[in-house]
Structure formats: structure tokens, C-alpha cells
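Sample pair:
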Amino acid sequence: MKNINEDKEVYEILEGEKERQRDGLEMIASENYVSQAVLEAMGSIFTNKYSEGYPGKRYYGGQEFTDKLETLACERALQLFRLSEDEWHVNVQPYSGSPANIEVYYALADFGDTLMGMSLAQGGHLTHGHKVNFSGKAYNFVQYSLSEKDQRIDYDEVRKLAKEHKPKIIISGATAYPRQIDFKKFNEIAKEVGAIHMADISHIAGLIAGGAHPSPFPHVDVVTTTTHKTLRGPRGAMIICRKELAQKIDKAVFPGFQGGPHEHVIVAKAIAFGEALRPEFKDYAKNIVENMACFAETLMSFDFDLISGGTDNHLVLVDLQSKGITGKDLEIALEKAGITVNKNAIPGDPLPPMVTSGIRVGVAALTTRGMGLAEMQRIAELFNIVSENMGNDQRLTEIKAEVATMCKSFPVPGTK
């Protein structure tokens, strides 16, 4: 088979997805669009190569260019976060964010040890200790939450829990938290109790690289991040740690949890890191924050309640209880209108995870397409119209047509 379009069934699915992305508004906070170069890299000749081990220490032959590739990707990652190779070490082999987190735990703690992370119900990630996840089964996780007063991280509670439980690792970072994270405070707490401070910056890595969010690196021992989301690279991850932890981290990744690295994805990581090193990426990160602030303010003008009362980053978490609708129902209605979001639990949510009282909304992907403040205001207005016309399929179809027209002025990168 010479071309993908010779497989008609697969080709039709691909074309359908391309059309969906082209004509709709992608507002899932963990999604973004990659460049044509990143797309091409993932289909590159490195798809054919098996490379267990690390540069200079492989279990297979033919590694001259693989070693150059991984070394380049690691060098660019350090440059991206303004780190010295004398102090920091990078592993670009993790397949995705969840494996990266588990690999850090495996490297630096024993099964059954006490760790601390943000509760999933409060905005944390499954791998931050939820009971249904491997992390919550293999380790004794203590979960911190948000303050009931302002729905922000309660650092006093974090300190109290840390002193009481003496965790081996304290994890800062979240998957549905709209405010800046005070990594310095987390590090102070960790050092008070002799814990390792691990920051999971998967959602905000691009904002940090672009200078639109405070960096964790002066205040951490180890950092995990996906390479997609705001960093605008391929689906994958990396771990950055202090030099003294490098051997433990590398052994946990391979042979601890993974076999051969996905070198075709590492090509794409290297390209994405290079793109993020360009001056225009700082503008992109700044624009994300400004777009999100505009969207949030407009949404609140229509009496939508936002967790913590607003946002500092690329996302908002919308509490729909005052509107009398569920996250599931609004997600479905918005999709009919050509807008993609995800239902999401809010702190203290009375509804089950497959229903929820909230939605999570992000603007990184729309910002990549070049949309600005005028579009953010109109899209927030459309959210309100959809919320008032949940059962009116004709009105939702009209909005979908408007969305498709708007999208024509803002092409999806990497598509024709």
C-alpha cells in the first residue's frame, strides 16, 4: 500500500476527524494543534527504529542518529526552561504523562510509602493518588484540597497534612485548577518535612516556557510534563530532575516501566521544543492567558459561576449548579453547536463523574489558530445561548453554522 487513501475505511475516518477539527471550536483544555513539522515527524523514518537504552548505552545496533536525536531533544528541553545541564537532567522517553508520574514514584519511593497530591475531586489528576488508579493502589496517598472560602489551594492545609503524615513525595500540579501554583510554598513545606517536591506541570508547561506562569524549577527536585497541551508538541512526556536523581529516574523509565522508546515521537518532541524556543512562542503564551481572561469575564457577565471566581492560566472550571444544568448535558449541547469541551467534576460535586456539575474549558487550541479577544467574547456569548437552548436542535444547528464560518478565518495548523 503506497498511500493512506488506498485504505478507504481508515481514510474516511481520518477525513471526518479533519473536518471536525477544521469546522469546530476545540476547547478541551488538554488539547492543542501541532505544526505540520510535528505531524510529519511522527510519521518519519524513526518509526522503524527500536532503541532500548539511552544514548551511548543501547541494546541494539544502528543507533548513531537515534543518539544524536535524543541528545538534541534533551538539550532543547533544558534551553526551553532555562536550565543548566550541570544541575539538571532530562529524560524524553516517557510515553505520556501518566507513565511519567508513575515512573517518578517508582524511582523515588517504595510501594506502600506515603505520598501527597491534590484530590481528583478538587482538580488533581488520576495519577496524583486516586483510589481507582495504580498510584492510589500502590502508594498510601494523602490528598489535599481547595479552600472552601476561595476555592484555591489551601497551603495551610497542605502544611498541616505534610507535618502529620510525613510523605516521601509531595506533588504540586493539577489537571483542572485555574489559578497559578505557588511552587515556592510547596517546596518550603516539602523541605520542612524532608519530602521530595515533584511538580506535574503538564497543563501549564507552555505557559511556563513562554514566561506566562511562574517557573517551578528553582523550587523543585523533579518535574513531569506532557509535551502536548500548552507546549504544543506531540502526545508524549518528559521528566526533568536534579542531577543527583538522574540515575534513579532513568532506571525507573527503562527498564523499570518501559521498553523501547518511541523515537518517532521524540523527533516530534525535539521539533516542538525548537518551535517553543522561538520569540513568537512567548507571545503565544501571553495571548493564551489574555484570551482566557477575556472569555472568563464575558462568561461571568452571563451569570456563569467559575470555580475560584476566575482564572490565571489557560482554563476555567465552570460550576453549572446555578444554571440548573449538568456538565454532561451542556457538553452534548455544545458539541451539537460545534464546540467541544469536557464535563468535569467541581469541588464537592454532588453528581457522579459521568454526569458532573461542571465543565472544563480551555483556549490554548483556539489561540494557536490565531483567535483573539473578539472571538473569545463571541464564543462566550454562544456558550450562553447554547445553555438557554439545550433542547432546541434547530438553534444549535444555526450556532454550528456560525461556528463553522468563524473557523474558516482561522485554519488548523498542519491541515490542508
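The chain has a mean pLDDT of 97.
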